Amino acid sequence: xxxVSRDRTAARPAGSPEPGEDWIAELTSDGPRxxxxxxxxxxxxxxxxxxxxxxxxxxxxxxxxxxxEDIITLAADEAMVAVLGKLAxxxxxxxxxxxxxxxxxxQAAVELRRQAWSHREVPLDAVPQLAERQPSPDQYAEGAELxxxxxxxxDRVLTPHQRRIAxxxxxxxxxxxxLAERLGxxxxxxxxxxxxxxxxxxxxxxxQGYLTPSPGETR
Amino acid sequence: xTAADRPFTTEALSQLTTDPGPWLSCDDCFxxxxxxxxxxLSGTPDPADELAAMPTHxxxxxxxxxxxxxxxxxxxxxxxxxxxxxxxxxxx
Lengths: 219, 92
Known about the structure:
The complex is a heterodimer. Chain A is an all-alpha fold. Chain A has helices at residues 3-11, 23-27, 31-54, 57-60, 65-85, 96-116, 137-157, 160-171, 176-183, 187-207. Chain A is elongated. Chain B has one domain (24-90).
């Protein structure tokens, strides 16, 4: 049995109704009907947050067990506020439960990444220089020449900002939410920088003959 | 530790040079994620093709991909093969 099904079994007693198409009606009603819907929604969000954290074993190991529980509870609480605040925007293009889960998943993932990296340094003061490394025999076989071309392209075609962001996210594997927090920006802005950096790298490498553009990709 | 001290791995090389596809913001990815995972679970193509940029976005954004994979598993429950979830999300 997966952790998801375990959670579902624990959260929903036998014989209780499946959350149906009337979540919106129940959550916007009054009295005990709404109270029951709120209770079920919070249980669902806790389940989503807990499952997300359970899948991030590497980061989860970097925080204490009590802190993990705090992260799950906080994520569910914040997701509850978000879901209730956005009920009017729910268009019914997916099941309500799937729509609601995504808020808990996002909150839990972002908070665990932040907590796990809270005491780790993110080197951002200088534009890092890529080290020249001697390729292994496998790397020779798999394209050491391409690796060298990519290193060269990083230096030649990216702006210092693009290079710093691409290296932090991909080489140093800094979580994007953590990097956004340290730089006072957001996930969207950093991903746009990475997107543009990839476009530049690929265009340069295509011109050099190191890769073939994908269909529809401009050179 | 700076990038200069880190190995320049094959995975990093692949991630640096992956085709980013058409632009899709992380906010839009989040907006579409619930619908996208249900389309994948149903096996029915999205008639409006609004989801066309999702696979390449999820291939290029590890945070969005990590969250979308969880959402797919939650939405699919026991009917989803966990090993295949991420592959389907990224168009593989």
